[in-house]
Amino acid sequence: LLNLSTLFLNGNRLKNFDFIQFSKLKNLNSLSAENNVLNLIKYESDFELNSIINLNLKNSNINSIQDYAFILFIKLSDLDLSYNNLRIIKENSFKNLKNLRWLKLKNNRIESIENSSFFDNVNLKYLNIENNLIAFIRQAIFTGLRSLENLILKSNKIEFIESESFSNLNKLVYLDISNNRLRSILNMTFT
Questions:
Q1: Which of 161, 44, 153, 159 is nearest to 108 (CA)?
Q2: pTM > 0.85: yes or no
Q3: How many CB atoms lie within 10 A of CB 1?
Q4: What's the pLDDT tens digit per position in 149-189?
Q5: Distances (CA, A) of 181 to 87, 133, 177, 178
Q6: With contact defined as beta carbons under 8 Å apart, do 51 and 24 qualify?
Q7: Is the dihedral of CA 89, 93, 97, 98 positive or negative?
Q8: Chain segment 45-86, per-residue pLDDT in tens
């Protein structure tokens, strides 16, 4: 299987998904394992998956991402973790994903995003966090996203956005914060 470039494992009952199983597939660009029961994405330190560009783990019952879980996915450009059960995005969840361009986190149960969670994602252009349980946007959440063009935060429970929360998003052209619980917009929210 040395030439295998795309692998679909969708709609199975995979529980223990160990990425090391794919480390010998040097031409694997796209891996899709949506509709499984994975629960946890963890970091494996003794292998590399530097050929994978697209990783789809949508609707796989994931409730936690271990720190540095994707650190060895050096070329990863598109990551879809939508329709899972994630509750928190930790500071090191997406560490070292400097080539990441698309990140989809919609339809989870995300309540909190730690400061600087996306700091290393300097090339991220599209971030979708719609339909979660986020109530508060802190100033440092989006630090490091200097290439971000599209930010979708609609259908959360956002009541408050700190001043200058979007200030470092100089390339942002599309922002959707509709269908939230905002009562007012502070000065300098959009500066």
A1: 153
A2: yes
A3: 8
A4: 999 999 999 999 998 899 889 999 999 999 999 988 877 77
A5: 19, 11, 10, 9
A6: no
A7: positive
A8: 666 678 999 999 999 999 999 888 888 888 999 999 999 999
What is the DSSP annotation of 164-186? Answer: TTTTT-TT--EEE--SS------
- Which position has the token pair 């300098």? 188
How many angstroms separate the Cα of 99 from the Cα of each of 11, 83, 108, 119? 28, 23, 23, 12
E-strand spans in the chain? 6-8, 30-32, 40-41, 54-56, 64-65, 78-80, 88-89, 102-104, 112-113, 126-128, 136-137, 150-152, 160-161, 174-176
Measure Cα distances from 156 to 6, 45, 132, 144, 152 in Å: 34, 35, 5, 23, 10
Q: Which amino acid type is present at position 36? A: N
Under 8 Å between Cβ of 74 and 50: yes
24: number of Cβ within 10 Å: 10
